[in-house]
Design brief:
The structure holds 2 protein chains of 2 kinds. By secondary structure, chain A is α/β, with parallel strands linked by helices. Chain A has 14 helices and 14 strands. A 5-stranded mixed β-sheet of chain A has the order 10-9-11-8-12, sandwiched between helices. Chain A has a 3-stranded parallel β-sheet with strand order 4-1-5. A two-stranded antiparallel ribbon of chain A has the order 2-3. The radius of gyration of chain A is 21 Å and the shape is globular. By secondary structure, chain B is mainly α. Chain B contains 16 helices and 2 strands. Classes of the chains: A alpha/beta, B mainly alpha.
Amino acid sequence: MKTSFILGAVTVAGLTAGAAFAGTLDDVKARGKLNCGVSTGVPGFAEPDANGVWQGFDVAVCRAVAAAVLNDSDAIEFVPTTGKTRFTALASGEIDMLARNTTWTFSRDVDLKFEFVGVNYYDGQGFMAKADLGVSSATELDGATVCIQTGTTTELNLADFFRSNNMSYEAVPVETGSEAVTNYLAGACDVFTTDRSALAARRANFEVPTDHVVLPEIVSKEPLGPLVRHGDNNWGDVVRWTLNALITAEELGVTSANLEEMSKGTNNPEMNRLLGSEGNLGEMLGLDAEWAKRAIAVSGNYGEIFENNIGAATIIGLARGVNAKWTDGGLIYSPPFR
Amino acid sequence: MSENNSFVRKEMISERIPPAADRGLVKWVRENLFSSAFNTIMTFISLWVIYSIIVAVTPWFLNGVWDAKTVRECYDLLDGKSGACFAVLKERFPQLIYGFKYPSSEYWRPNLATVLLIVALAPILFRRLPRQLLIFTAVYPFLAFWLIWGGSILTSVSAFLGCAIAVICYRRFSSRSFAIAVLISLIAANVWWIIGGYIVDLNASFLSLKVVASRDMGGFMLNLLLGTIAVCLSIPLGIALALGRQSGMPIIKWICVVFIEFIRGVPLITLLFVANVILAFFFPPDTSIDLILRVLIMMTFFNAAYIAEVVRGGLAALSKGQYEAADSIGLDYTQSMRFIILPQALKISIPGIVNVSVGMLKDTTLVSIISMFDLVGMIRGPILSSTDWNGVYWELFGAAAAIFFVVCFSISKYSQWLERQLETGKR
């Protein structure tokens, strides 16, 4: 009891010491490098390639922020974090932002004192089964054995889903996603469940991907997005509006191909404000006028980033689905640049 | 009568060969494999198991694909046959050994450091080699630091000179008092390091190698680095702790006892989480100490506590007469330890120390859990999660096991050899 009190007091002291420092934006500029927390590897979202260069959908957010703030999309220290270390790394100030397919939940936002600046991928839990099982819907899975990662929200969602549909299942608990796939392929379980983006990525590398089907049901909401620490709203704004700039660029039809041309000034006032030929939005953020232009220049707008990393043309082959822009019936929506 | 006895043989009959069933391979097989009904059954079961493993594994090896860009290409080339996808080892080999951030133009530096490590260890490991080689052993840590981390060679030279000055001062004053000699050498070394620091800052580019940050190290290099440094530092620390625990001075004794028992009572992975997660809260955001350094400190403490217990076992195994004999010929504490007690106690402790150290080397793979990319971390993280290679488990983990086996097996073979060499008393 006493030791925990002392530890707590020290932790609070450490946190206040961190908060008393200058704003994160100034820190990053002074350091000349953005410390960006990523995962240790999720196919398509964050993975170092054969040359050791980080690639992926989450990594693109880091690069966009670095380009906006530091005018160099490579001025990043990628700090790999696991599911266990990610939140302390952010809370202790070791990283400036976390872009690591992290689900936005109430307790993480409120209790852990973080600020989710937006959603860059709407995920949801799904099921994968062998095609010869002849199942076309998750509601037909009564009595199935399910490979499930222990200690995750997917484990709880699974229990909820089967209970609410009055079905029974037998869980095969495993530690990691890779282990789950090995078990599933070896026939230890009929069904493998996790986020649908991960299911698609795993399936792509099966020997015969068409022998396996991803069932249509989505049994949970997993809005994934970048996050920053509570208490530094200015820095939060920088990350939030960088993400929004990528989304708005897609809405306005600004792509990496026509960026230079568009930034010279167009008839569309919002586009001019976004790209800095009109207004002083960058100045309000503590950046220069061309911040958003640089962010978009790194790897294009939101749609381009999606298609190049995880889109239908890639091995992972995810359809836009709910991640289409709102004008196409999806959920990807940015507040206006005004 | 005896002279006429024709039944008495005059010459020896030459030895006859034992019956076929009682010699050579047949005898060995009969005695070891078919000595009873139960053993016969077990033999046949084992043979069947070995046969089925070979039948299953051989085509997997022989069909192995060595040239492919992705795992899907592997599957295409195998075309439904059973076979390994060794291409991943070929393509990601540098990543497995050096991690993915060590600049590829600088790979020669860790390579050279490893070769020199063997040279530096040789005089310690083999007593027959000329003793002059020990000078290189003393220089090696500083040389290796320069090679692996880069920067100006002056940093290493200055650090080395500081240590050298400390040793000289200790030699000069040790005849008077141990404590004074230690104090003087510490002061002298620190004075030199302050002066040396200025000199280094002025000539920062002198013989400078490209700087590589600690966090850019990875792969098996990181395992070897952590293992070697932690073991080297923890042996002296462990001996000091073991002696401290036997000390008659209560404060020293209790500090050592509490330290050892605390560290031994906590799993290594907990200490690593403390190093990674908790310690970060104690530093202001921009002055965080290197993660490798934090991990290294924890591993050194952990290994030292175990070595201390091994050495304590060695000390306890000596008869009391040895201590009394040392006292009776008028040696002080330092001398009796140096000349009488420790040489015998350490000899007894060697198997234990090697055992703990091999365990430490393997335990370095635990850092993969705190998101450091050692050999296992590289496999679990970047390689298995890449779009190109996810799904290739057996080849990667098999390679990791093979690498560790080679290293650990040679260490334990060496320690067995060393035990035989040192068994002078019992011959």
